[in-house]
Design a protein that fits this description.
Layout: H1 36-43, H2 47-54, H3 62-74, H4 78-98, E1 103-106, H5 117-123, E2 129-134, H6 137-146, E3 152-155, H7 161-170, E4 180-184, H8 194-207, E5 213-217, H9 220-223, H10 229-240, E6 244-245, E7 250-251, E8 271-276
Parallel strand pairs: 1-2, 1-4, 2-3, 4-5
Antiparallel strand pairs: 5-8, 6-8, 7-8
C-alpha cells in the first residue's frame, strides 16, 4: 500500500505578509499602539502564530517565523507536522461532536489558519459551539475579528482554569452543566514545564463538568523525535493530571485516520491523546 501523496511546499515556506494588505496589527483592536508599543507586542514569538506560519497563514510576524525555523532544526518536516496536528484536531472535533459534545473550549489553537475548531464545526454543519480562551493581545484581537457568532473569543489566562472557565461561560454559548471538550492542541508549547502543564490540566479537570473530554498533543520541539519516549511521557502526564486516555497514545496521523496509508511514508509527528474523566 503506497503512501498518500502530500502536496505541501518545501521547507522553509516563503514569508507571508502579516495581517492583511493595508492594515497593521495596531488597527485590529483596542489595546494596540502604533510604533514602539506595537513593535513591543510583536517582538516575542507566540507558538500559535508560529504554527499559523507553518500552516500557510498570513497572521504571523518575524519573531514567530524565527520560532518556526527553530522548530525545523528539530523536525525538518515541521510544516507537515503542523498539518498533521491540525488534521488530528479536526478529526477529534468531528468525533467528539458525533459522540454528543456540544461545547468546545479551545485553549491554544491559532484561529487564523485553516482548520480551526469553529471552522470544522461550521464547514461540517455540526451542532456545536466553540469558545476560544485567549490572553495574547494580538491573537485576541485577531480572533474577535475572524471568529463569527455563535462562536466566541474570550479574554482569560488558560493557566488560571477556574477564572478562565467562568469567563468562558459568560460568552453565553456553553451550557454550564454539560460536558465540554477542552481542545489543548499546542497548549504544551505555552507552558514552561511538564509540571506546570500537569497542574493546569488537573485544575481544568476540577472545574469543567464531569464527563468532559481533553484533546492534547505533546510539545512541538520534542514530540517529533522518533521513538516511543514522547508518547509514553504524554500518557503518563495525562494520567497524573487525573484524566483517563480513551485509546492508546499514538502519533497524530494514526489517530482515527480517514484514509489508508503506508506507515513508512508518514514522517514522525507529535503524539496525541483524547481523554476523559
Amino acid at each position: 500500500m503506497s503512501a498518500v501523496p502530500l502536496s505541501m511546499p518545501r521547507w522553509p515556506p516563503e514569508p507571508r505578509s502579516p495581517v492583511w494588505p493595508g492594515m497593521s496589527v495596531g488597527s485590529v483592536g483596542a489595546g494596540f499602539d502604533h510604533g514602539a508599543g506595537e513593535r513591543g507586542l510583536l517582538a516575542a514569538p507566540h507558538p500559535a502564530r508560529a504554527t499559523d506560519y507553518l500552516l500557510g497563514g498570513g497572521y504571523n510576524f518575524p519573531a514567530d517565523r524565527e520560532l518556526a525555523r527553530r522548530w525545523s532544526t528539530v523536525d525538518p518536516d515541521a510544516e507537515r507536522t503542523a498539518r498533521a496536528g491540525r488534521s488530528f484536531l479536526a478529526r477529534a472535533v468531528r468525533h467528539l461532536v458525533a459522540a454528543g459534545v456540544r461545547g468546545l473550549v479551545d485553549l491554544s489553537t491559532a484561529v487564523t489558519a485553516g482548520g480551526a475548531p469553529h471552522q470544522v464545526v461550521d464547514d461540517n454543519r455540526l451542532h456545536a459551539r466553540t469558545v476560544y480562551v485567549q490572553s495574547d493581545p494580538v491573537l485576541l484581537a485577531l480572533g474577535r475579528m475572524l471568529v463569527p457568532e455563535p462562536h466566541a473569543v474570550m479574554e482569560a489566562p488558560v493557566g488560571a482554569p477556574a477564572a478562565a472557565w467562568n469567563v468562558a461561560l459568560t460568552a453565553g454559548v456553553l451550557t454550564p452543566a454539560e460536558p465540554v471538550a477542552l481542545l489543548a492542541v499546542g497548549l504544551a508549547d505555552l507552558v514552561a514545564s511538564r509540571e506546570e502543564l500537569c497542574d493546569v490540566l488537573a485544575v481544568w479537570r476540577a472545574v469543567v463538568p464531569a464527563g468532559s473530554w481533553l484533546v492534547l498533543t505533546h510539545r512541538f520541539d520534542t514530540a517529533v523525535v522518533p521513538g516511543a519516549g514522547p508518547g509514553e511521557e504524554l500518557a503518563v502526564l495525562v494520567g497524573d493530571a487525573g484524566w483517563t486516555s480513551c485509546e492508546p497514545v499514538v502519533r497524530a496521523p494514526y489517530w482515527r485516520p480517514l484514509w489508508p496509508f503506508d506507515i513508512d511514508g508518514i514522517p514522525p509527528a507529535a503524539p496525541v491523546c483524547v481523554a476523559t474523566f
